[in-house]
Design a protein that fits this description.
Layout: E1 27-32, E2 40-43, H1 47-51, H2 59-68, E3 77-82, E4 86-91, E5 98-106, E6 112-120, H3 127-140, E7 145-150, E8 153-158, E9 165-170, E10 173-175, H4 184-194, E11 200-203, H5 208-219, E12 224-229, H6 243-250, E13 255-259, H7 268-276, H8 301-309, E14 312-318, E15 321-325, H9 335-363, H10 370-390, E16 397-398, E17 404-405, E18 408-411, H11 420-425, E19 432-435
Parallel strand pairs: 1-3, 1-11, 11-12, 12-13, 13-14
Antiparallel strand pairs: 2-3, 4-8, 4-10, 5-6, 5-9, 7-8, 14-15, 16-17, 18-19
């Protein structure tokens, strides 16, 4: 039978290449834990961490809890793991009940292995004898760990430092608060290698060295770090050795600092990020935000001014409500401007690449002509227009003389004026844009006059 292609030949090209975009609305809470083997978990509620065996006293649980307290808040939260080599399991009560510990680890081939140790409590048992018995049961499952029991506690240690294992307990057992010898920068880098889809960062650690190290890391990795600080020096204008002062001196544009007296128990910075990330970049400000479940700091005007002069942010009461104040990064820029800048740069990059790839597939190439250059500027214009509709770029306005002030301008060379070497190298240079930020109103000054006649 003859082929119909002889009469009609149909070729359909797919110009549907999609480029993965960086999220600017996903938050990573990171700290030591041993409830999973992966570097990253994604949870949609804090209770999911409890179900995995994390303690309510764990700072990581508290940080995620404070994210999901907010209305509105993000739909999910990334949980990053700092390596834990030792896990303490505590027998909280001796009873005739089941005590169980489930361990997971990876074998030499990387496959996940699992074993469960079980001990049935007896009438004569004490917490110490149960700890000893459960220790022996864990040793019998042949996991790559060493178990040592002492009094009512047993410590499970990895046989190889840096090799991850997880522990989940049930019965009258609880896990001690985990610690890590891995630096936060190493943990952040490992999380990024596993999945780079997150943007915001909140630390469980309040140690100054951890904060400064993480601030340096995010600065070179295009993330946005929130830091909660309880140091009294932050609200003391006579001190310049506190964390806020040090971050200000470093002029970090990707770290926002929040003074909070209860920073050891509450994660204000995670809460405000969870709330603000519900808005498109450019459509929010980080000042004048109400937060749920976060204790405000009743600061004096001098204390608040001291913190704000160090570019630290606060959460303070005003009459019968409390709101955030300032909304700046350590270098003094507005947090929302940094987030919008990152989003705008990413969107322009993705849109231009998408146009080049899909049009090239359709037409064979994007020519080095005025028409080809217009393809690039059109892709940019689409993103800038979206920036206007999202509220980051100001709309067209008029001045007192009714002259139109554009939202943005784009400049590009004519193909005839492009240097020979640029054309030979097939590189388009001298594309630029200028856009007017919409900004936000945080405070209003009003002057009025009362008179008997106008």
């Amino acid at each position: 039978m003859a082929n119909l292609d002889r009469i009609v030949n149909v070729v359909i090209t797919l110009n549907t290449t999609a480029i993965r975009e960086q999220s600017f609305s996903d938050l990573l809470a990171i700290g030591p834990h041993a409830v999973s083997l992966t570097r990253l978990l994604v949870v949609t509620g804090a209770d999911q961490l409890l179900e995995m065996g994390m303690s309510e006293a764990d700072p990581l649980y508290k940080a995620v809890r404070d994210v999901f307290k907010q209305i509105p808040t993000v739909s999910q939260c990334f949980v990053g793991r700092q390596q834990v080599d030792d896990v303490d399991v505590i027998v909280t009560k001796a009873s005739e009940s089941t005590y169980a510990a489930t361990l997971q680890w990876r074998d030499a081939a990387g496959a996940v292995q699992q074993g469960t140790a079980v001990y049935e409590g007896k009438p004569a048992d004490t917490a110490a004898t149960i700890a000893q018995a459960l220790s022996a049961a864990i040793a019998a499952i042949d996991a790559p760990v060493t178990v040592v029991a002492y009094a009512n506690q047993l410590t499970i240690s990895s046989n190889v430092a840096g090799e991850a294992f997880s522990v989940k307990v049930r019965g009258n057992l609880t896990q001690g608060l985990p610690t890590s010898t891995e630096s936060l920068t190493e943990a952040l880098a490992a999380c990024r290698r596993e999945d780079d889809g997150w943007y915001g960062v909140a630390l469980t650690s309040r140690e100054e060295a951890d904060v400064l190290g993480a601030a340096e890391w995010v600065e070179s990795n295009a993330k946005l770090l929130g830091v909660g600080v309880a140091q009294p020096g932050v609200i003391d204008s006579g001190i310049d050795t506190d964390i806020a002062s040090k971050l200000q001196q470093k002029q970090y544009f990707r770290t926002h600092v929040w003074y909070h007296a209860r920073a050891a128990e509450e994660w204000l910075e995670a809460a405000v990020a969870g709330n603000r990330f519900t808005f498109y970049p450019g459509g929010e400000t980080w000042a004048n935000v109400r937060l749920a479940g976060i204790t405000y700091d009743n600061l004096g005007e001098g204390e608040a001014r001291a913190a704000h002069n160090k570019n630290a942010n606060t959460f303070e009461p005003f009459r019968n409500f409390a709101i955030t104040q300032k909304g700046k990064v350590a270098a003094g820029e507005w947090i929302d401007v940094i987030r919008f800048r990152d989003w705008l740069g990413e969107q322009i990059k993705v849109n231009v690449v998408s146009a080049l790839v899909n049009l090239k597939n359709n037409k064979g190439k994007v020519p080095y002509t005025d028409g080809g250059i217009e393809i690039v500027t059109t892709a940019m214009r689409q993103v800038l227009d979206l920036g206007v509709s999202r509220g980051g770029i100001a709309p067209e306005e008029v001045d007192d003389e009714l002259r139109v002030i554009p939202s943005y301008t784009i400049s590009a060379p004519r193909a005839a004026n492009v240097p020979f070497n640029d054309k030979a190298n097939r590189v388009l240079n001298d594309i630029a844009f200028t856009a007017r930020l919409a900004g936000a109103i945080h405070a209003v000054n009003i002057k009025g006059t009362l008179t008997y006649a106008l």
